[in-house]
Amino acid sequence: MKSRISCCNAGLLRRTLLRGAPLWGLWTLGGLLLLPLHLMSLFRVDSREAAEYLLGITQVGTVLVFGYGLLVAWYLFAYLYNTRTAYHYSSLPLRRETQFLTRYLAGLLFHLVPAAVIALLTILVTALQGANCLAASGTFFAATSLVYLFYYSLAVLIAQLVGHIAALPVLYVVLNFTSVVVETILASVIRTFTFGMASGQNLWPDWLSPLFYSLQKNLFGYETIWDEVTGEFQSVQFNGWVPALVFGAVGLGFALLAFLLCRKRHLETAGDVIAVSFLKPVFLYALSLGCGIVLGWVFSEYLFYNGRNRFLTMLICMLLGTALGYWAGQMLLQKSLRVLSKGNWIRCGAALLVVAAGMLCCRYDITGFSRYVPDAEDVESISLDYDGGIVTDREIIEKTVALHQEIVDQRYAIEAEAAQAPWSPSFRITYRLQDGSYVLRSFPLPVYGFDYETADRSGLAWAASELQNDPKVLEAKYFPANGVPAYDRWRVEYYTEDGSYMEPLNLTYDQGKQLAEAIRADIEAGALGGNGISWPHENLPVDLILRYYYGDAVSECGLSLTKEAEATCAVLREIGIPETVFEP
């Protein structure tokens, strides 16, 4: 019988929708409970509250479609993973392309129809309560549909790549989260034997893990707009249109790739882990490398954490993890335990050599990463530590570059001492270069004394501490140039003589400004703001919480008081802090 040529088969579409009713029915019920039924239960709702709630649910919906898209694709294409059902559907008088497009369209309707019904009912319910939510409801429908298109199409693409029913959800989750997980672990592994590697350095873009990236960057958030003069409500603005459109466009690309793969898919691959032959080596070596990184880190961190030679321990553990991943991958691909052939041993050895070569390159700085020290003339500004301010003073920059060079020159001595020293605090430097790029470095500097009296004053740790306690560095830290002081939000926290914690003392604008002037004077005098082994003053049980505006955001930093900070202590006494707290 000749196959019909069409893009959609009505009978198959109707049957697919009816059999999938429990899935899309539960999805619809959940949406009805969250939106129209919830809004109906409220006594009264205005347009602003309803719009904010709708866009909040929209943000939640962009997360929930991650799982829903997987479930829909899993249901629609599960027939591919059983030889009997795969041959049954291929024997129907319908072209393979028609079956794929019909099922893909059904999967889209699994979300589009419920979302449209929910949006229309929400408009009706809010209109009956006197609120106008037409724009917010349309945003809910469009944004969730575009993001659903992305996740659903990705799941459909993976469904064409794999041949086992359990492989689809596993690979779907792996592809969405492996980037951030492997990057986190790999960065931790590299820092173990790469001198100067700092945390927070991205090895690849975060958008390779789409769900994590959208949550981290709040891509689908909203903003309530108020009139700056009258303070009246103007609108609620959705901020995620560009990301939603990008998600939708990429989703269409995934759908096209899935369609092309469907046309070439071999029915006999049902039951295989990977159904596309040229991707099997990619899967094998990706699994080997991933297991080498993850299992190597787990073995090294939890079984040999106190090992003295961290590099050798990590190297052995990563090679072991790589070998385990390789042989597990071969067993999955061949569906057999009999995989110990000569060719597999050679390929496993090649994978181990690649991992070992990569680790040795990092350890012995083949790329020059650890040896690199920027020229002081190329540096625009620096920041010391995680919470350090941005310093543009040329003298401080030159001192930092000189200390950095000295640390690099003594690399191997520092590593040997750090393995034996009781304490090795990290000295972190962030350079902003004249071309706008950033250079991050972090070095463990061994310390043999824990305070000002016992620390070795000839060591690099002492020099780093002195640099961090320089008044110019401290002023940039506590009085950032790009922050506007929120004087009326500054506060003082302290403990009484008996050790009980008092409620924070909030300051007025004038009190905060007066306190800021006193803090500046004491920092310049070297009596306030420092810490570490080179700081000679003892902190009092008083914390000053300084707040700054950065646009719409507010950040804060804490500052411990010292007895030598005479100007600051005088202002605090005037404000009303008890005299007993000034006694060390």
Automatic annotation (TrEMBL):
Keywords: Membrane, Transmembrane, Transmembrane helix. The keyword Membrane applies. The chain crosses the membrane at residues 21-43, 63-83, 104-128, 134-158, 170-190, 241-261, 282-305, 311-333, 345-366. The keyword Transmembrane applies. This is ABC transporter permease. It comes from Candidatus Avoscillospira stercorigallinarum.
